[in-house]
Amino acid sequence: MDAKLLEILVCPVCKGPLVFDKTKQELVCKGDRLAYPIRDGIPVMLEGEARELDPTEEVGG
């Protein structure tokens, strides 16, 4: 994930910062506990495509 791109991308729901989870290839919003997938190197920043994090799931970063 390009560091410059990560600096400008924000959560589409709360506009908060995102954390790149390299192992799962996701961008994670800690505030909303949503994980946005990265498919073929492209972040899918759609709320409907986001995965809700399990309450016990640790947020990387």
From TrEMBL:
UniProt superkingdom: Bacteria
Gene3D superfamilies registered for this protein in UniProt: 2.20.25.10
HAMAP family for this protein: UPF0434 (MF_01187)
Family recorded in the similarity comment: Belongs to the UPF0434 family.
Protein name (Swiss-Prot/TrEMBL): UPF0434 protein JMJ54_18065
Lineage: Bacteria, Pseudomonadati, Pseudomonadota, Betaproteobacteria, Neisseriales
